[in-house]
Amino acid sequence: MKKKQNQTIPDDPFTTAEKKRKRMRRFLTAAVVLLVVSAACWWALPKNSSLENSDLFNAEEVEAKAEEVVHLINDEDYEALQKMTVEKVRSNMTKEKMDEAKEQIGSDWGEFQSIEKINTAEMRQRNVKAAVVQLVAAYENQDITFTLAFNTDMELAAFGLQ
């Protein structure tokens, strides 16, 4: 009985070249997609720079505006606070909402003592620029960190407490 021998067919040179072209095309397509996704991610990430070097914001003006926000909150002058706030944030600047936010941090802050520390930066994200301020306010019973962001019109655009 004769055994069938495995016969190998030599590679067709045209098929091999075609496979190489397809492989190279897939590689280039993946590289281009990866490059586009990387560029989009870089564009979407926030970029911070010193406020002192900003051509849009004055560091002293931003710090003064941040201190004003803290004093308005301490005085519970939410009407004045709403006037300096962008429309999207305005609805959160009420006594009820602020009391809720304050309660989440602590029930009794005590009397306001002073502003201990202020850090500022210019943040750029998706072609939107803002002055970001993080300040620590000392109260009788605890320190509170305020995080504020002002748009280029110096309106309060974001607000947070810690």
Q: Separation of termini?
A: 88 Å
CATH topology of the largest domain: Nuclear Transport Factor 2, Chain: A
Q: Could you state the order of secondary-structure elements as H and E?
A: HEHHHHEEEE
Q: What shape does the CA trace take? A: elongated
Walk across the major sheet and give the strand order: 1-2-3-4-5
Q: What does the average pLDDT come to? A: 85
Percentage of residues in DSSP E strands: 25-35%
Radius of gyration: 29 Å
Percent helix, as a range, is 40-55%
Secondary structure: number of strands? 5
Q: State the CATH architecture of the largest domain.
A: Roll
Number of helices: 5
Task: Describe, in plain words, how this protein is organized in 3D.
The chain has 162 residues and is of the alpha+beta class. The chain contains 5 helices and 5 strands; from the N terminus they run H-E-H-H-H-H-E-E-E-E. Strands 1-2-3-4-5 form a 5-stranded antiparallel sheet. Strand 3 (128-139) and strand 4 (143-150) form a beta hairpin. The longest helix has 32 residues, at 13-44.
Descriptive key words:
five-stranded antiparallel sheet; elongated; alpha+beta; Nuclear Transport Factor 2, Chain: A; 5 helices; 162 residues; 2 domains
Brief account:
This protein is α+β, with helices and mostly antiparallel strands.
Annotate the secondary structure layout.
Layout: H1 13-44, E1 47-49, H2 59-74, H3 78-83, H4 87-90, H5 95-105, E2 112-125, E3 128-139, E4 143-150, E5 156-161
Antiparallel strand pairs: 1-2, 2-3, 3-4, 4-5
